[in-house]
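User: SalK. Structure?
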Amino acid sequence: MNVSIARDFWMVLEPLHTVTYFSPECVDGNKDVGLRGFWMGYFGSRGAPLGPVPAGVIEASFYGFNPARVRRAIPDAWTFAPPESILRMRNATAAKALRRVAPDIDAMAAEAVRRLRPAVDAVDGAGRVLFAANRDLPLPDDPVAALWQLATTLREHRGDGHIAVLAVEGLNGLEANVLASAIGNVPAEELKQSRGWSQEDWDEATTALAARGLMDGDGATDAGRALRADIEHRTDALATPPYQALDDPDGLHRTLLPLARTVVENGEMPFPNLIGMPRPPT
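Assistant: Predicted structure:
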């Protein structure tokens, strides 16, 4: 199978997943369950499948954030809302958000779940912490919530592989952010603010990348661009195995693409975004 199928599925599953960060139903749900502030909501809801883990586990598995930002939210989040309550909330609010932006989703959700589930069931979770934690959650009875959960699980499978490639290349989370920004994928100022890095931190990482020949005064060098392209290709390759288990991956992709476009067209996912994902194709 061509590794591009993994990127194609990323571009239709990521918008479904990201309602949990941006949609008002999900932001309000984090608050209603007891989490305080956007970042505690983010770390708590995304990290809830791991259980009430210490901050170091979130730092390692989320990778790109300043540890100080993580530690302002974790482990305190678990004292305000136990993971079990967060998990129930995030399924319900994600389904509510998807139904708002795509009122026809119920007509296709159950069949999409049936066709997508083999992708999650077929692959090994070794070395993929967030994937394995999400995979082992009970699949909701609500088919829309179940579709969101499967999209989330496969999204985290891709993310775990991406982190592995970055680690092999000797790029820490900050350096990965700086290089991605230098390529032009994500605005630097937004990355610094969202990931919690100071200008001093950013400058130190830029100097370290320049010493490796990956950046210069004009931004990313040819070597830096080549490395970034290779990282994306290897991420796609590592993300491909789940889709080899599908009977008709192209057909399922065609089914999910209009839903992803609807989510995007309703403004539930900003562009450009901090994930660096382009708009789904039209």
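Residues 4-167+232-265 form one domain. The chain has a mean pLDDT of 96.
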